[in-house]
Write a structure and sequence with these properties.
The chain contains 12 helices and 7 strands. The chain has 345 residues and is α/β, with parallel strands linked by helices. The protein has a 7-stranded mixed beta sheet. The protein starts with 11 loop residues before the first helix and ends in a 14-residue tail after the last helix.
């Protein structure tokens, strides 16, 4: 159980003990056998699907990116949920590799043939026009960076408002993703998000059915009753080895990019990727490089029209912006922090 939900009427000593217990519980879950992790993941999916129907009156949403974690999450759902208890959603980013796009199309055709709703969401502006990376860059007037990752917010995170969503987030993926848990609320500021263990979610959901008293509701149940966003991370404690062992055990088909040596299959040019990764992506998919350069040219035209100039002489045209952008991957491991020097010029 998340200790922040239990810090009432305790002194510092008890709080420390409680925090240590949480750490021990998380360590035990990470070190559990794959069989136990599979069992817990299915429990989380079944619970989330039940919560979604009871509190939101709509099926659980599974977000699907075309990566290995999404495939494992989907496979688990297909083996523990009925076809009308969940639906699958992909957010079209316009910067996925062709291999990823084809893998998503094939997967969604298979799902729709089985009677499982699978939809590709295309974000649109207020006039109904499609939003892509290529028109988003000129609009924002800066390239996407780790500090200014507007692309995720617009292209991915706006597609599932006021629902429960199952995602393939795992603690092993990055240091930033550690410290979370199976269930969480979604807030405007990340530090305001609340995290809950599977055991806590099971307990309060059961009690909410038995105790018809709004004053009792914990944060998780209250959030759901208000139809606010909640995320479930069924494979949160899985390691990379767990993921690949599950794929092998179930003879699953995955994105062909993995067979080509790719470790990640996200957006081409993602600010979170390494310099080596993006260099390989633009070498393998040169048309995306040209698309970025054209978007940067349009971005510079918009900046000039609005009176914003690069007085340091680094942004002369789309090619020079692209070169600067790529070099920032290489030399600024904290994520293109020199961008701040140019924002107000």
């Amino acid at each position: 159980m998340q200790y922040q939900q239990m810090t009432f009427n305790v002194d510092n000593t008890n709080t420390i003990i409680l925090t240590s217990q949480v750490i021990e519980d998380k360590t035990a879950q990470s070190n559990a056998s794959l069989e136990d992790k599979i069992s817990d993941a299915k429990k989380a999916l079944v619970l989330a699907a039940d919560m979604s129907i009871k509190y939101y009156h709509q099926p659980l949403i599974l977000t699907y990116s075309g990566g290995k974690d999404s495939d494992v999450l989907l496979h688990l759902a297909e083996n523990c949920l009925k076809s009308d208890e969940f639906e699958v959603l992909n957010s079209h980013t316009s910067v996925d590799a062709p291999d990823t796009v084809y893998h998503i199309r094939n997967t969604f055709k298979r799902l729709n043939d089985k009677g499982i709703k699978a939809t590709v969401h295309q974000p649109k502006d207020k006039n109904g026009n499609p939003i892509t990376m290529w028109n988003l860059i000129p609009e924002k007037q800066i390239p996407p960076t780790r500090l200014r990752r507007y692309c995720c917010k617009v292209l991915k995170e706006s597609s599932t408002p006021n629902r429960i969503c199952a995602v393939g987030v795992r603690a092993a993926e990055s240091a930033k993703r550690q410290g979370r848990d199976i269930f969480s609320t979604i807030e405007k500021k990340y530090e305001d998000a609340k995290f809950f263990s599977l055991e806590h979610a099971l307990e309060v959901h059961q009690e909410s059915q038995e105790i018809q008293d709004d004053a009792w509701d914990c944060t998780l149940i209250k959030t759901m009753k208000e139809h606010n966003d909640v995320v479930v991370n069924p494979i949160y404690y899985w390691s990379d080895e767990d993921i690949w062992n599950y794929i092998k055990q179930n003879n699953m088909s995955v994105n062909p990019l993995y067979a080509k040596g790719y470790k990640r299959v996200g957006c081409i040019g993602c600010p979170l990727a390494t310099h080596h990764q993006v260099m390989r992506e633009f070498n393998d998919f040169p048309k995306y490089k040209q698309a970025y350069i054209k978007a940067f040219d349009r971005m510079l035209a918009v900046r000039k029209a609005s009176g914003k100039y690069d007085t340091k002489g680094k942004w002369l045209d789309g090619n020079s912006v692209f070169s600067w952008w790529i070099e920032e991957y290489k030399y600024n491991i904290k994520g293109q922090i020199n961008m701040e020097d140019m924002l107000n010029e």
